[in-house]
């Protein structure tokens, strides 16, 4: 089993998990799915620069081999951007929950409790 096969398998598992989570109906699961998907993209970018073990990321006269530093720089930038976007999405989801009382991404109301369902009432959400 080669290193490339393991990295490709990890990318596939992350993409599959990300898509599964994005297709859920709740905002927190969607945010987690987008995060998994971004990890898969970061791993893909990192692997696109060839997987080299124990090689320095700089050229020198003493080094016989080197690793391309551009994918590493791209992944570092992508991690920072992903963190910022995830924090923004979490704040938007929290604000949406506080405004509507539901964390459903399709706009449905929050599921009612059995006592409220028997009386026909819906569960009121918190209002800001």
Structure description:
The structure is a single chain. With 128 residues, this protein is mostly helical. The chain has helices spanning 3-22, 27-48, 69-100, 114-119. Helix 1 runs antiparallel to helix 2 and helix 2 packs antiparallel against helix 3. The N and C termini lie far apart (55 Å). The model has no long low-confidence stretch (mean pLDDT 82). The chain crosses the membrane at residues 6-23, 30-53, 73-94. It holds the Pfam family Oxidored_q2. Keywords: Cell membrane, Membrane, Transmembrane, Transmembrane helix.
Written as H for each helix and E for each strand, in order along the chain, the element string is HHHH
What proportion strand? Answer: under 5%
Q: Tell how many strands the DSSP assignment holds.
A: 0
Low-pLDDT runs of 5+ residues are none
Structural class, from secondary structure content?
A: mainly alpha
Molecular shape: elongated
Roughly what is the average pLDDT, rounded to an integer? Answer: 82
How much helix is in the residues? 55-70%
Number of helices: 4
């Amino acid at each position: 089993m080669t290193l490339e096969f393991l990295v490709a398998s990890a990318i596939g598992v992350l993409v599959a998990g990300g898509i599964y989570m994005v297709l859920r109906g709740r905002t927190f699961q969607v945010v987690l799915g987008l995060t998994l998907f971004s990890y898969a993209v970061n791993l893909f970018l990192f692997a696109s620069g060839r997987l080299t073990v124990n090689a320095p990321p700089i050229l020198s006269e003493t080094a016989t081999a080197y690793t391309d530093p551009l994918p590493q720089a791209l992944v570092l930038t992508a991690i920072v951007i992903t963190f910022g976007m995830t924090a923004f999405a979490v704040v938007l989801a929290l604000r949406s929950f506080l405004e509507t009382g539901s964390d459903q991404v399709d706009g449905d109301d929050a599921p009612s409790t059995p006592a409220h369902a028997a009386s026909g009432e819906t569960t009121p959400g918190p209002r800001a």
